[in-house]
Amino acid sequence: MSRAEQTRDRAQYGVCAVLALTGALVIADALRITHLTSSNDPIGPRPVPMLLGACLLAVAVAYGIDVARGGRGEPEAGEDVDLTTRVDWRTVLLLIGAFLLNAALIDWLGWVISGTILFWGSAFALGNRHHVRGLLIAVALALITFYAFAIGLGVNLPAGVLQGIL
Amino acid sequence: MDNLRLLLDGFANVASPGNLLVALIGVVAGTAVGVLPGIGPAMTVALLLPVTYGMDPTQAFILFAGIFYGGMYGGSTTSILLNTPGESSSVITSIEGNKMAKAGRAAQALATAAIGSFVAGTIATLALVLVTPVVVRFAVSLGAPDYFAIMLLAFVAVSATLGGSRVRGFASLLAGLVIGTVGIDGVTGQQRLTLGIPQLADGIDVVVVAVGIFAVGEALWVAAHLRRKAVPVVPVGRPWMGAEDWRRSWKPWLRGTALGFPFGALPAGGAEIPTFLSYATEKRLARRPEEFGNGAIEGVAGPEAANNASAAGTLVPMLAIGLPTTAVSAVMLAAFESYGIQPGPLLFERQPTLVWTLIASLFVGNLLLLVLNLPLAPAWARLLRIPRPYLYAGILFFASMGAYAVNAQPFDLILLLLLGLLGFGMRRFGLPVLPLIVGVILGPRAELQGRRSLQLSGGDLSGLLGGPVSYTIYAVILVLLAWPLIKRFVRRG
Known about the structure:
The structure holds two protein chains of two kinds.
Chain A: H1 12-32, H2 47-68, H3 89-109, H4 111-125, H5 131-152
Chain B: H1 2-14, H2 17-35, H3 41-48, H4 57-81, H5 91-140, H6 144-159, H7 166-181, E1 183-184, E2 191-192, H8 206-224, H9 243-265, H10 272-285, H11 298-320, H12 327-338, H13 345-350, H14 352-383, H15 388-407, H16 411-428, H17 434-456, H18 468-492
Antiparallel strand pairs in B: 1-2
């Protein structure tokens, strides 16, 4: 397939905008830093972010030119990826929801409960309709990982409200 | 023969029953996770990182060695039994491998992949034993400007790969470098890009970045385009090979190894080029080239050996210079750092036991893999049928667990999600993820070496130029950068 045969992917200009914005942010942040230099460190903390910011702006421009000339990045393929479909935002948003719920609840309810919610919610978002089986697997995984990692290997996982019960 | 003695000591360390068990767990877990569709070797290592948190470094390294080769082998099983592209390094294996599987020769394809991986892995690990000390001796003599130049070379080499879009590679690299800059500057104590968030003062943990980009990003990306119809899995019995298959396989194994190791060991490594070259070589040398495209065993044996040999090759720059050139070695390097271990020439001086135990366990893991995988192949094939909602829910579950366990703060989960969304965006727009990971890991070190060089020259930029080594490296960088121009010029002339 030549470049001209492919449909234009205008969303790529969004990537340019993000790159340029990041570049501007990095430069703005670097200007804020007090400029400290010493004989040990003649250039100080500022030049590197300044350079990165400038490079980001330059790459944003080059990217824009590439897109304008019909350049296109190939979306990544994979074993379970069907690129002929459109992005399924409902699934993605539900997954993000389950993920955020875990982040919000983990310290309070503990890993066993929040992890269960995360697994069950994600499986539901991805189209699992065996709710009871999903829940059983979720609880089993959360309990196994908690006992194996937190208690067995001493990894940091909170017990939360179940402290003293588990 | 000092190294030989150290290697034998390494074997003695691995040989205790407890450590052998750890090696076994590593191999089984690595293969099982690597077989799962959608999980490449880099994600395998990233997801299994938390398993090592509670272990002492030696055991953790033994486990890593197992996961390393197990994950590689698992990936090729997937590509033989499923006719869909997986990670780039096993794409070539899948061309002939899947054709063989469909023609009822899955057992032979898996066998030549398993035995070829073993042969290549063993020879390449031997080469690693011989080459690494030489590279270390060279690396010890290097100064800060030389290291700075080597890291710049790594940046350019991973971003401007053959065939890929350069502007996309550099965009990814810069994103990684910016992420690596976040936190308190080690020299002056100034906060950079922390946006006033106290949790960012210590910087963004590389493990969180790797898990976010590889695991969460991949899960979200697959979720957005999930194939609703199951991909057919080719049923398979116990792998075996007839005399004819052996006769046709052994030369491709050796040739694949010879191609794979040097490519892996170069700072511009990666498995794509050697696997492709091996495929092309086997096709040219084959007695019946017309079989290629219809399931030629040479087309599985050669690239699979090349893939494994190049993986072992990438450990040379990783251990000797601290330079990751593939996603897997980048994640391994991050794992080393979480133990406060800095790969590089001094590693061999300061922690010889650890390094040589790691190398010895590469041999052991490789052997265990061969012994296990031949009988276990049907079980691995069953893993391919795992319902996708559970698979990707499981990836998010383990990713969250691993990222939380690094610092025990929910903030890291938010960071993980943001990095996952970044990974999602990069997959959508075809930005390669390797430059980002290399940027995050090497960025801070390149800055350190650069500032150290300038310290020696009192701030004069000429301090970055160093001596003959860095001159040579800068010349290579220039050639790499100017390659499209040079190619056009040569073609015209």
